[in-house]
Amino acid sequence: KVEEIHRLFTEPSLINEGASLKEVVEAIIKDPKTRALYVVDKNKKLKGIIVLKTVLKFAFLESIPEPYLDFTYFSSFMSIGPKAKKAGDMMLPPIYVKENDTVKDAFALMMKNDLEEIPVVDNDLRVIGDLNVLELLELWLKKLGE
After folding, report:
1. Which one-letter DSSP state was computed for residue 31?
2. Cα dihedral sign for 95, 99, 100, 106?
3. Percent of the chain at pLDDT above 70?
4. Long-range contacts of 70-75 (CB under 8 A, 24+ apart)
5. Among candidates 113, 116, 118, 140, which has minimal Cα distance to 130?
6. Rounded distance, CA 25 to CA 129, Å?
7. pLDDT for 72-98, tens place per residue?
């Protein structure tokens, strides 16, 4: 179960919807294991997820060489472009697991949604932890040694 392992790892990285791009970048680089930020309201209720790749796209959008902007990979960001100044502009809808979910469920959600990190929430959707791919690999190594 997720409840048995998520508390063994790092604290989730939280940010509010109105945070600037600069604040988003500062928050995501604070912890080298961070692969996502969780956008929350004042009660830590999950509003959305900002993944590392999205932060990179927004941070470098103005300096990406022209030929690369034609790729579908960047096209969805072109309409927002430099106007994306807040965390709320960059977030994906909330995708999460609860403590009673299995690690297998968490892994499946992460793979299905191309996430490297997923929040753990309580029944009120407040972020209480997270799991990321590095932590899952640590768990795999631990199980391998048993």
Report:
1. S
2. positive
3. 78
4. none
5. 118
6. 20
7. 555 555 455 555 578 988 899 999 999
What sign has the CA pseudo-torsion 60, 66, 71, 72? positive
Give the tens place of pLDDT for each residue, 109-133.
999 999 999 999 999 999 998 888 8
Predicted local distance difference test score (pLDDT) of residue 141: 86
Q: How many CB atoms lie within 10 A of CB 115?
A: 20
Cβ partners under 8 Å of residue 126, min gap 6: 40, 43, 44, 45, 46
Cα dihedral 56, 37, 43, 108 sign? positive
Going from the C-alpha of 134 to that of each of 10, 56, 87, 140, 143, the distances in angstroms are 11, 20, 24, 10, 14
Quote the DSSP letter at residue 86.
B
Tokens 């945070």 found at: 19
Please tell me what DSSP assigns to residue 132: E
**Matching residue, tokens 């959305």:** 48
Is pLDDT at 24 greater than 60 in this prediction? Answer: yes
